[in-house]
Amino acid sequence: MTGKMVTRRQFLKHAGATAALLGLSEAMIPQLAKALQELAAGKPPIIWIQGQNCTGCSISFLNSNYPGVAELVLDKLSVRYHPNVMAGTGQTAVQAIKDTVAAAKGGKGFYVLVVEGPVPTSENGEYCTFGLTDKTKTLANTNVQVPGDKTINEWMRELVPGAAAVIANGNCAAFGGIPAANASTTGSTPVSEVVAKIDPKKPMVNVGGCPSHPDWFVGTALQALIALGVLPGGTPLNLNENKMSKTFFGQLIHENCERRASFDAGLFLEDWNDASPDMRLCMFKQGCKGPVTYADCPTRRWNSAVNWCVGANGPCHGCASPQFYKELAPLYEPLPNVNFAGITPAADVLGWVAAGATAVGVGAHYLYKQLGHKPEEAEGGEK
Amino acid sequence: MAQVISIDPVTRIEGHLRIDVEVTNGVVTDAWSSGTMFRGYEMLIQGKHPWDAQQVMERICGVCPLVHGTAASYNLDSAMGVTLPDNARLIRNLALGANFIQSHILHFYHLVALDYIDVTAVLQYSGSDPGLKLLRDNVAALAATKDLYPFLPRYAAPDYIGEAGGPGDPNLATELVGHYVQAFEMRKKAQEMLTIFYGRMPSFVGTIPGGVTTPPTLSNIAAFRSRLHDLQAWINDVYVADVKAIATIPAYSAFIKAGDSGGNFLAYGGFDQNQRGTEKYFPTGVITDYGVLSPGPFDEKQITESVKYSWYKDATEGLQPAVGKTEPQVGKAGAYSFLKAPRLNGKPMEVGPLARQLVKKDPAFMALATALGVLTPPVKFGIIPRIGARAVETLLISLEMDKWLDQLTLGIGKNIWDPKGRDIPNSSNGMGLVEGPRGALGHWITISDGKTGNYQAVVPTTWNASPRDKAGNRGPIETSLIGIPVPDVTNPINVVRCVRSFDPCIACAVHIIHPEHNGVLEFRVV
Lengths: 383, 526
Fold this sequence. Notes:
The complex is a heterodimer.
Chain A: H1 8-22, H2 29-41, E1 45-50, H3 56-62, H4 69-76, E2 78-81, H5 90-105, E3 112-116, E4 119-120, E5 129-138, E6 145-151, H6 152-159, E7 165-169, H7 171-175, H8 183-186, E8 188-189, H9 191-198, E9 204-207, H10 214-227, H11 246-249, H12 253-256, H13 260-265, H14 297-300, H15 346-353, H16 360-371
Parallel strand pairs in A: 1-2, 1-3, 3-7, 7-9
Antiparallel strand pairs in A: 4-8, 5-6
Chain B: E1 2-7, E2 17-24, E3 27-35, H1 42-45, H2 50-57, H3 65-80, H4 86-112, H5 130-144, H6 170-198, E4 207-208, E5 211-212, H7 218-247, E6 265-267, E7 270-272, E8 280-282, E9 285-287, E10 303-306, E11 341-344, H8 353-360, H9 363-372, H10 383-410, E12 428-436, E13 439-448, E14 451-458, H11 460-464, H12 476-481, H13 493-500, H14 506-509, E15 523-525
Parallel strand pairs in B: 14-15
Antiparallel strand pairs in B: 1-2, 2-3, 4-5, 6-9, 7-8, 10-11, 12-13, 13-14
Helix pairs in contact in B: 2-3, 4-6, 4-7, 4-10, 5-6, 6-7, 7-10, 8-10, 9-10
């Protein structure tokens, strides 16, 4: 739609900008240029369904910048089903899914399944439904029979087998997130577990964040398409142990924080009335989870790179971490047992706070500072 | 002969909504609104640090996080006896205002507008505007590849007739599709604007109990104002103008009265104009039985919630939110929604832009209403006044924001936070009432032993999209559907036009409670 006639050279230029935006290696640029060109030619079909979601990751996707969302939705991707964006409703909406699945089955294409929000499985999955089934139910206060409700779990069983890949977009879909706290009632289940039950070999990636950053989602999706051979390049996905792309979730926020110097100098924000932007005070004492959270927020920033949480004198709440929220609470209390006076058991203690090796960063750095050399454990921080 | 149509999913809203309508002789004669998704939050913040409540509550909804986070902040402020600095009040107003702008632009252009034009008419554009010609050619290119997602497929409206200025007018259609694309950038700009103070959107860190986190500076005020002025101009020249163009299309004149929710309106009031919040930009008021000339006072104690038709246990029927319970019972006989049915003094209430403007009666809205003939008897407030009120208030808020920025400039160097927000009382109660884009929103907290005990929220869409109550009164959306023309039962576009005019947000509206609570530590969102 924004659609210009684009030459290959312009594509390379565009791909350069996109690659920089997505934080990809320059070595990937020609490959990405080709990928984008392919995208413009035969747009990959996307079916984007929502489980126990809040639509935050969809709204975040709309904040996409260079490429903007209009370009993505109209020029680069073929968004067959997305509840908030699509034109169709009711049966016309569901028909778009059926057509896409049928084409993939008939060998005339494929689709990528994006899932936002986890999948409830208790009570036969009736805690989350969309669309109609052949089963009927009685309409309240009448004796009229109407079609029943189709559960998101049924949709997963229907859509996962034919999908080229499944992308769990956002912390809830990927790890359970906030709805998982009520899993004992609704049986709320991360997408990866649902997919594994249907087809353990199905290519599947997680995008963290509450919400996910639009670059994280778009970049991971492009990488997945390249890895699958749908787009040229052949580069395999480089995922961490949580099935998240290392391009975006490879480094601790703490390692790249613009306020790291204040942390090292012991300059902490104690009172928000002292929050002068010039001071760049460290948010550690206000509960910052940057030391245990892998994400590139400090360099990527949010909303067209206008700001990010720490830039607004807020602590990182660790929303891209699989442990968010439950295991990172209390959000505004400092991570426990970090002694600023000297060497402490920080690395060990932090370990149980936030899942093993992910927590080594802070403690290892302290040791490094104190001992004047880099201890072996420090390697763990980059896992 | 009566026939029932089931529409699921209702798209271009937030969340999971199903609508069933009974159609008799081409007109809707009955309706059922069903929220079809349930989560559960309370186990998370029960017994947790009260400050966490704000971060968790803003995540009820990714469309409205700013509103929930703001209500939670006011709620915690009141529980902790905070004196809110003026800077904090102004920055909260500005952030909430920015969210109104992004939410309303998103609603009109991306959720609603294309229901009122024939998208395919773009191909017939014969004007000379170079941007629109390019747009036409690009749509033609998409059409050539038979891939017009996400514009098509859709229900075509029977009223798409090709006359000039009508829904099928290629010039109007092309302009609107062009504005649809522009609107992506404009709503993004509004998100950027509030990010200046709040860090990021959706989900943000900029408001905390006792105040806000980012002090005003010449530079951040200028960055905010620059974006605001771009938006003001676009809202006035494009958004309001487009709404007026659609509102005055003769084929849609029926929608000025059709879609009326029953004449009861509720506004909590919002945007504090002084420290204690005794004066608000949006006034508080209750309108019953179309009595728009004499709004009455609001008393939160008159709110009760019915669950007769909701998937919750009957034992929890009719309670006030402050002492309410929510215990899911999937498959309960006769029930059809995860939404409860809140009522004020037993009456269903429409909340949102139309309610606010009928209480406030801003001259700009009254002029539009008069021009459209809304106020000529029989007085009914249908789809078009609802969409019009939203556009008018977007412009009004954007203009008011300039004044808040002026005042904020005087506050540079002054406090942004009352440290009392840090002092967690051993036991206390709080309440935070605000107006969000979709309407009246209330949060309540009980703090016990210095931790979060009971937390409640009553949310705009629960009012609007509620099912029937125990007395059999339909919810406002259900009532509004009665009388909507559906000449062809295979094409219910007018039904979804009406539903979308309320801008429903189901993630917000569905109760989120664990049934295994102990009766004391209960967290609930209505």
